[in-house]
Fold these 2 entries.
Entry 1:
Amino acid sequence: MSGTNAAGSITVTLDGTNKSTKLALKPGTIGPQVADIRKLYDELGVFTYDPGYGNTASCDSTITYIDGDVGVLLHRGYPIEQLAEKSSFLEVAYLLLNGELPTAAQKSEFELGVLRHNMVHEQLRSFYNGFRRDAHPMAVICGVVGAMSAFYHDSLDISNPEHRRIAAFRLIAKLPTIAAWAYKYSIGEPFMYPRNNLGYAENFLHMMNAVPPEEYKVNPVLARAMDRILILHADHEQNASTSTVRLAGSTGANPFACIAAGIASLWGPAHGGANEAVLKMLAEIGHVDNIKGFIERVKDKNSSVRLMGFGHRVYKNYDPRAKIMMNSCHEVLSELGIKGDPLLDLAMELEKIALNDEYFVQRKLYPNVDFYSGIILKAMGFPTSMFTVLFAVARTVGWISQWREQVEDPTQRIGRPRQVYTGAKQRDYVPLSQRG
Ligand code: SDX
């Protein structure tokens, strides 16, 4: 992890001309400095080219720092390992939103604020009936969250700090309720309301598993594991879904619409949908004897098969979240009395073989956060279709923190990337009769 870099500049010269320009280097607190290219087109008439923005900083941010080369993840400077072990999801939510760990008074006030917003407008329930029972729950929560902008008109003025504050509380508090109801709707069971005598993760597990006719006691070990899983998924710098939320937010769209856009982006199997894809992959492999054949298919350039839950745009080392997730796996499985879960055994053998295979070593492909999460969630009784929904519940905290940072950043402008045009040159319209 590099220290603070001295500010400087780089000079860019257009070969074959006498044109050049000096680009300021902007240092971060830690990590690589960036070259400010905002005047490049005006001075040299060229854009930069970076499909997927893998080498492009889209903003200043103080929320999360990742050093992918060494596998470091910091939230407001605190290592994810320490937060996962010592903190709680709502405390991490406060940290991401406000920049500092809360005092005892701030923590209880924040937790009470979340509790007071965990019910949803009763008319939002009718949106569920518009979906088929077999609709993917990501489709359902995307629709219901987007619809929130039609119900909470008193928190849509993004220039009003109070509206931004209430919108953040509403989204953090209501996502577990909306997510649990999507599950209950899919299995035809009655919706369970949140209970204010339960913690955040405990409440979610209660709404997922309880039924009206009887009392349901949440297993405290599973509630703690759930809370830790939410912490591990809370925020992750400028990933695809967070960048989606920021881009939508840059137009002045309301927070509910922006978070719905983030949910849609997270759903893809290359991103948050990977946890669901990992379970499907493990089911397809079926047995450790089939691992070598599967790995050969992954390495075969003619096949589009990927080792899901492996690889990462930023991590070129072990994703620190995956390590914590694997340890949680063992804790949850032993609490549930599951001896030698075949899926976990298969996943661990798959990881061992992959990490010793030149193809993965050369490309620096390691397990990411999605490789083990699905195994825990399946053991806890979640259907695979709910895995990415859980990711969305957790990431809502990161999305809304990043959205708010952008709205409050006076230098931020509407996002509008350029392109290199490789299409037809200007030509005249050809009448239908002359088109052959
Ligand atoms: C998340 O950005 C974030 O922070 C995301 C996230 C978050 O918290 O928000 O961390 C959550 O999305 C984790 C990633 C979950 N996705 C998966 O597990 C899906 C499988 N992984 C990939 O498809 C892939 O690794 C990505 C999408 C995650 C990253 O893709 P990149 O950075 O664009 O890498 P690439 O496609 O350019 O791959 C580089 C090389 C290629 O081989 P060559 O062309 O050089 O021969 O590595 C290969 C790829 O074919 N490769 C893989 C692979 N991932 C990359 N080969 C096999 N299996 C894989 N999983």
Entry 2:
Amino acid sequence: MGLNIDTVPESVAIILDGNGRYAKKNNITRYMGHKAGCDNLETILEETVRLNIKYLTVYAFSTENWKRSEEEINGLFKLFDLYLNRIRKKAIENEVSVKFIGDIEKFKKNIYESCIQLEEETKKFDKCIFSIAFNYGGRDEIVRAINRIIKDGNSTSIDENTFSKMLDTKDIKDPDLLIRTSGELRLSNFLIWQSAYTELYFTDVLWPEFTIDEYHKAIDDYNKRSRRFGGR
Ligand code: IPE
Ligand code: IPE
Ligand code: MG
């Protein structure tokens, strides 16, 4: 029996972790584990729209994930390419605007162009802003922003608001709630600037097993918290 959710955070971020452990547990390849993770992402995206959550930002591939085997990386890019089409359909059906954060210019030309095309095609939608972090690292994002500022050469000093606008996340509200599945208690370089005052939720549930009920549990836990931003 699911929880009854009447209030929701405006901006949710998720670190999709545990596909590998799910594969091991079910005696399937890591590739199939990642595939199960992609399928679950579609379910959670639809539920996000249904709940009227305005921003969903997910961590799909980090700048550190290049340390994985070539086989696994190739598999992840294959899935990314495959799911771009499926996400496109879901986005149009649900009036979702899709964005990418991270250094996607490093992708192969055809994948990079599909990403830009998908952003263009869905930018008119505003029911939900769904951002996919691919080749994303918080430190890398900050350093790229600083280099942009240096290159522009117009500023001698900068404030927090202006700096936030230089980041990949300029169109995304800072997360109210950040969920990490799979029991790891760290941010692994995700949204390190943006999560300064985010409420964190960690669960042992593996990402492919993170059901709608589990999602509701996380939101319910968030709703019980009293948010503070340093004031009294
Ligand atoms: C998360 O699952 C997906 C990516 C990092 C691409 P993992 O592959 O990290 O799964 P575990 O941590 O090995 O279980
Ligand atoms: C974080 O998960 C990155 C993504 C989910 C895309 P990892 O599995 O790569 O993180 P660590 O290595 O456990 O910190
Ligand atoms: Mg992991």
